Structure formats: C-alpha cells, structure tokens
Amino acid sequence: MGIPDAIVKKPDRLTAEEQATMQLYPQIGFNILERLRQDIDIHDTLVFEMAKNLALSHHENWDGSGYTQGLSGESIPLVARIMAILDVYDGLASRRCHMEALPHAQVVDTVVTLTGTKFAASRMEGCLQVSEPFRQIFEATPDSERSRPQGQRELVASIPEGPLA
C-alpha cells in the first residue's frame, strides 16, 4: 500500500532508490493504523497495538540489520518476530513476478539458515512444528487464492498447538 506498482511488480532487482521506496511500506501501514485509531473508537486497544507493531516492525531483524527502526533482539515486538518468519515463508513459497516459488524443503532450509541473523533461534522450534501444515496449505491452495479468508481459517485450524512464541 502506498508503493507504486512499477516497483512492487518489477520483475528485476530493485535499484537502491526503489529499495528505499519499498522499505517505506511498514511505516505507511503504521501511519494508516494510527490515523484510524484517532478517527474511530477502538475498543480492543491491545489487538490494535499488536496490529501497529506488526505493521511497523515485521522487517526488523534479530541482529539489527532490518528496517524501519533498526530494532534488534528482544526489542522487536513478539508479534513482529513471528510475522517475520511467516512473511519470509510466504515470500519464498509463493510465485512472485521476479521469481518462481521454491519447494517447501528449500523454504524451510532457508528459514533455518536465517536463524540468528534474521530470526531468533527460540522461534525455530515452533516454526518447524507448523511447517508441515504450511506445506499442505501452500500445495493445496493456488497463489491467487491464498489470501482469501477461507484459506486463512483453514491455515489456523490446521496448525497444531504448541509454542511458536
């Protein structure tokens, strides 16, 4: 949201300037949510604060190399640390304009190799516990249908209970 399609859908590597523009979207999402908070009566402030943290911080990296705030380690909100893993999984397992989807095993291997830099090691056990339901959903649901609410309900229902946090 707020990023030109020419950048979002570019099939080639982004230039440094395009990458800087692309990195604005977490702040844009946060700003939209903050404006909503000011304009409407929000009854569940905890959930709303989680949504704002998620929007702003899901590209922060465990080692501090991410964006938008340069957070690291435990200073990254928990909801954003979890979403970062899901975001990378989705990005690698889904066909994009600039790359084909990777097979599940390769996606999981990639996520595991990012442990300690992009992700907290303490999140990997939970991530690996839910990797099989993710594989099943990604194989059963075409990319064009994955964002539909029904697919999300199926995802949540198929994930075994256990510590992801």
Describe the protein.
- With 165 residues, the protein is mostly helical.
- The chain has 2 domains: 57 residues, no CATH class; 88 residues, no CATH class.
- Helix 3 runs antiparallel to helix 4, helix 4 crosses helix 5 and helix 5 runs antiparallel to helix 6.
- The chain has 9 helices and no strands.
Summarize the structure.
With 165 residues, the chain is mainly alpha-helical.
Please describe the structure with a list of short key phrases separated by commas or semicolons.
165 residues, mainly alpha, 2 domains, 9 helices, 55% helix
Assembly type of the shown chains? single chain
The gross shape turns out to be globular
Task: Indicate the low-confidence ranges by residue numbers.
Answer: 147-165
> What is the CA–CA distance across the termini?
28 Å
In DSSP terms, counting alpha (H) and pi (I) runs of 4 or more, how many helices?
9
How many structurally independent domains? 2
Rg is 16 Å
Secondary structure category = mainly alpha
Largest sheet: none
Mean pLDDT, to the nearest integer, reads: 82
- Beta-strand content bin: under 5%
Give a topology summary.
Blueprint: H1 5-8, H2 16-22, H3 25-39, H4 45-57, H5 78-93, H6 104-113, H7 124-129, H8 131-140, H9 149-158
Helix pairs in contact: 3-4, 4-5, 5-6
